[in-house]
Specification:
Layout (H helix, E strand, L loop, with lengths): L3 E4 L5 E4 L9 H11 L5 E2 H8 L6 H18 L5 E4 L2 E4 L1 H4 L3 H12 L4 H14 L14 H24 L3 H14 L5 H12 L3 H18 L6 H11 L31 H6 L3
Antiparallel strand pairs: 1-2, 3-5, 4-5
Length: 278
């Protein structure tokens, strides 16, 4: 197969030997992107219904067959789309050229092995994740995989932050946590509290600004407000008071700030609890 590059994370790019393939019809390109999310393949009826939502009948199956022929021609390889008992899937050499495949592969590698090896694998995986899957595609068929990959990237960022903290890299751990929360702000609110505590140890203005962004997001997207504990934590940081004790994962020192002797609201000390285990 010619040199193939498929990028769907944060962009929608397909290059064959450095050039855009000759699709001849949008249906071929759409079929490629759809099958990327189903590496084990799908029955022809499922594909037709998802992409074209047609009336039942032989014409719809013919439409799929034409799209398959055009996709094979565009990729310059008759074996690029495999047909097996009325199921269609992309051949492995095609899947391997996609950033979604590479992202998922490195996530799998990151879930086992020595800590430094896992950190490297998470870093490679997140380097592939440049943004939402197929950001310009409005079809409903793209939404499940888009949501899944975004969630996977956010979770990977959390796990990477834990490992970095345990490895004595608190600055990098904070950056990984902040990136995870940007990808999915609705992850458990305690992670936002973690980030605020960590930021406050370096720059309380940054901690307060994160809180304000979080408040705006909750109001705009879900019509909600932060928990009382989060608001109380933000107020203490704004007032220049110690937010709590947030120890660096692993050695208990890098995020150390004075403990709160008394407070009207019990503030969390979640960083050492959760960042102490991956």
């Amino acid at each position: 197969m010619p040199d193939l590059t498929i990028r769907t994370l944060g962009q929608e790019t397909v290059l064959l030997d450095g050039l855009e393939p000759e699709w001849r019809a949008d249906s071929a390109r759409t079929l490629l992107f759809y099958l990327l999310g189903h590496p084990d393949g799908l029955p022809h009826g499922t594909i037709v219904q998802a992409l074209w939502n047609p009336e039942p009948g032989g014409a719809s199956i013919a439409c799929l067959r034409v799209a398959v022929c055009r996709l094979r021609a565009a990729l310059g390889d008759p074996g690029s789309v495999v047909t097996d008992r009325q199921r269609y899937r992309l051949a492995l050499p095609v899947l391997e050229r996609a950033d979604t495949f590479q992202f998922t592969r490195d996530l799998h590698l990151a879930r086992r092995g020595p800590p430094r090896q896992r950190i490297a694998a998470y870093g490679r995986a997140l380097a592939h994740y440049a943004g939402d899957h197929l950001p310009l595609e409005q079809g409903e068929w793209a939404q499940p995989l888009r949501a899944q990959l975004c969630g996977d990237a956010a979770q990977a960022g959390l796990e990477l932050s834990i490992l970095l903290g345990q490895d004595g890299q608190p600055g990098a751990a904070l950056e990984a946590l902040a990136a995870a929360l940007r990808r999915d702000p609705l992850i458990s609110e305690r992670w936002h509290q973690d980030l605020m505590i960590g930021l406050a140890a370096q720059d309380r203005y940054a901690a307060v600004e994160h809180y304000r962004r979080y408040v705006r997001y909750l109001r705009a997207e879900v019509g909600d407000t932060p928990m009382r504990e989060t608001t109380a934590l933000a107020q203490r940081i704004k007032d220049g008071l110690p937010p709590g004790t947030a120890r660096a994962p692993g050695d208990g020192s890098a995020f150390a700030v004075p403990a709160i002797a008394s407070a009207s609201v019990s503030l969390p000390n979640p960083v050492p609890e959760r960042w102490g285990r991956a």
